[in-house]
Structures are given as C-alpha cells and as structure tokens.
Design goal:
- By secondary structure, the chain is an all-alpha fold.
- It is built from 14 helices and no strands.
- The C terminus is likely disordered.
C-alpha cells in the first residue's frame, strides 16, 4: 500500500502556503458569520411582508416579499426624528467631554512627576471594577438636586470622563518621544501648550479610538436614560425602541425595523472613522 504522506504530491501540497491561508480565512469567515448572523436576521425580519411566517421551518433568511412598509410605519407612528436628535446631542456632548477631560487627566499621569502619581493612577483604574448599579442611586439624587432631570446635561453627567479613557490616553502619551516635548519646552511652551500642540496631534489614533468607544457606548445606553427621563420628547433611541416594542409587541417586523434604524448611526460612525485607527510615526519629527 503506497505511503501517501511520503509522496511528492502530498508533500508539495503540505508545503504550499496558500492552503494554510485558506484554512485561516475559512475559520475567520465562519466566526464572522456567527457574529453577524443575528444582525442579518434582524435586517431580514425588518424587510419581510405581513404575510410571511417569521417562525418558518427551516428559517428563511431572505424575504420572499421585501418591503419598506415596516420602516415607513415605524417612522410615521413614532417620533424617531426626535429620538435621533436626542441621541446625537447626548453622544456628541459625551464624546467631546471624554476627549477633553480624559486627555487632560492623562497628561500629568504620563509626563509629570508628582507625589502619589502611581497611587492616583491605580485608584482611577480600580474604579473600572465598580458596577454602574452601585453608583446609580447617588448619581440620580445628585442629578435631581442639580435640576438636571429630563435634560441633556443630566444624561451626560455620569459619562463626562472614564477610567478606561484616562488609562488609554496615558498609554498613548507615554509613547510620544520625549524629544518632542523637550523641543516644545525650549520654544517656550507651557505644559498646557505641550498637551495641545504636541501630545494631542501625536496621539490622534488613540483619540479616535476613544471617541468611537464612547460614541457607541453612549448611543446604546439604556439604563441611565430610563431612570432620568420621564418625558417622551427627551427619549433617546434605546428608549424609543423599547417604547416601540411596547406599542407593537405582536409585530416583530416593526420592532426589527426600529432596531435597525437605531444601530445604523453607530455602524456608520465606526465605518467612517476606522481608517483613522492606524499607528502613527510619532517619532518622525525627531532627527538623530
């Protein structure tokens, strides 16, 4: 019986690098399909007509009678335009606050030397382990006492800065060559000037990454708006979709259409900004 393992043909195939790449790509495609399948099923359901069986066996991913009537009905029967506006305002304010405050807090932790710096950093990072439910009631009492109930500022209050953002920006600032900072000091820049003119331009990928994370997290936040808001005109998109589920609890097509409308902006932001998440040569301005 011939030994196939020792044959020249199979040895050549085993050494061919494309077979290895093909296996890796096949595995990655399978994992990606498993991850994306719920979104594809939601998208398919949102386009299905009223006569299609959503629970058919076997499941049918492609709509037999695709229609946009579900989207039109959702948009006409609910103030989704106002929900979009509310979510956009809250997300933009939260991203701007995080980029400013996290980078300001991270700069001294990365570049300045002072007593208790490492302890301060450790305490900040330790707050990541505190669940939001622990501080939820104190934050609500604070927001009510400040008159921030049913306001945009009240929705932004718990997310003005984050331990993750401070730690991320600190690590990015530590990667900036000290020669750039020393050159700026020789030109008469203050610490604030160095932060603005040197650190922020050199760490743009980290800023974009932080902005994407904060935007997606804020856009999908449900618990805090549910607690703070009781006026429907101030509802954000997650609350609007929940209200939609209560109004059309028997029609999953409309609920799927509203859910797709709510996730589209987050997907669009990621697609538009992902090209900026690339390593930058922060040391390109340093000549030996």
């Amino acid at each position: 019986m011939p030994d196939f393992k020792q044959s020249a043909f199979f040895s050549a195939i085993a050494k061919w690098p494309h077979w290895r790449n093909l296996g890796i790509y096949t595995l990655l495609l399978a994992i990606a399909f498993v991850m994306v399948f719920p979104l594809l099923w939601l998208l398919s359901t949102s386009f299905k007509g009223p006569t299609e069986n959503l629970l058919a066996t076997p499941p049918q991913l492609l709509p037999q009678q695709p229609t946009l009537a579900n989207y039109r009905q959702v948009w006409q029967t609910n103030p989704f335009g106002q929900y979009f506006l509310n979510s956009t305002i809250v997300a933009v304010l939260t991203v701007a606050a995080n980029l400013l405050l996290c980078s300001l807090a991270a700069y001294p932790l990365a570049r300045l030397v002072f007593v208790g710096r490492d302890t301060t950093l450790a305490l900040i990072v330790a707050t990541i382990m505190i669940p939001f439910q622990v501080v939820m009631i104190p934050l609500y009492i604070l927001a009510v006492n400040l008159g921030l109930r049913n306001t945009y500022l009240g929705l932004v209050l718990p997310y003005l800065a984050s331990a993750f953002g401070i730690f991320l920006m600190r690590q990015a600032f530590q990667g900036v060559p000290k020669e750039l900072e020393e050159a700026a000091r020789m030109d008469g820049c203050s610490d604030l000037g160095i932060w603005w003119n040197v650190m922020l331009p050199a760490t743009r990928p980290a800023l974009v990454t932080l902005g994407i994370f904060v935007f997606i997290g804020t856009w999908g936040e449900f618990l805090w708006p549910l607690i703070l808001l009781d006026r429907p005109e101030r509802y954000t998109l997650p609350l609007g979709v929940a209200r939609l589920a209560g109004s059309f609890s028997l029609d999953w097509r409309l609920i799927a259409a509203g859910s797709i409308l709510s996730v589209l902006p987050a997907i669009a932001v990621f697609i538009l900004l992902q090209r900026y998440i690339v390593p930058t040569e922060t040391g390109s301005g340093v000549k030996g």
